[in-house]
Amino acid sequence: MIRKMIQPAGPPPAREEDTIMGGQQS
Predict the structure, then answer these.
(1) Are 13 and 4 in contact (CB under 8 A)?
(2) Where is this region: Disordered (predicted)?
(3) For the chain, what is the mean pLDDT?
């Protein structure tokens, strides 16, 4: 969740969540 705020608002939030959540959960 913190990384999302640090990352730029370029790509859609759905992709960012998928990448951060998937990477963290994996």
Answers:
(1) yes
(2) 1-26
(3) 60
